[in-house]
What we know:
The protein is an alpha/beta fold and 183 residues long.
Amino acid sequence: MPVLLIIDMQVGMTWPRSGARNNPQAEAGIAQLLSRWRQAGAPVVHVRHMSRTPGSVFWPGQPGAEFQPALAPRDGEHVVEKNVPDAFTHTGLERWLHARGHGELVIVGVSTNNSVEATARSAGNLGFHTHVVADACFAFDKTDLRGIHHAAEEVHQMALANLHGEYATVIDAAAAAALLAAR
């Protein structure tokens, strides 16, 4: 059964200081997938970024580091705390998945070009059958090293293009629900 891996859906991501973003419906899509996974009794892993940078919205003990209430873990759902974008680095996630025989991941969350992309790259490199749900992820506007501004949707699409076919298969929420239903 595929594992739903929910990345960095923390309160701080909802604050204006995070910047302009795309996919305003992403949280609703994540909540729907989470509900389906729970109804099926399928495995869910919640990933939370705990920053090492004082003043970060994800600094431990601050409200921004908490899970968004609608997407908060329930008893029995695994929680991974990370300090870098990749949810596999120094977290024990790979060991936890292998110990339970989980080889397929469905990744949702934020941000597409940062923690989602880093985690999906590692998952693919580690041999997990990895899916990234495009309409259940989002990105923020970004300025490149030349000083050119890129809208969040462009950043999102480029990150998905980087992943698709190489590290993961990019799908939509309907296809993710179908993956679960097929098991």
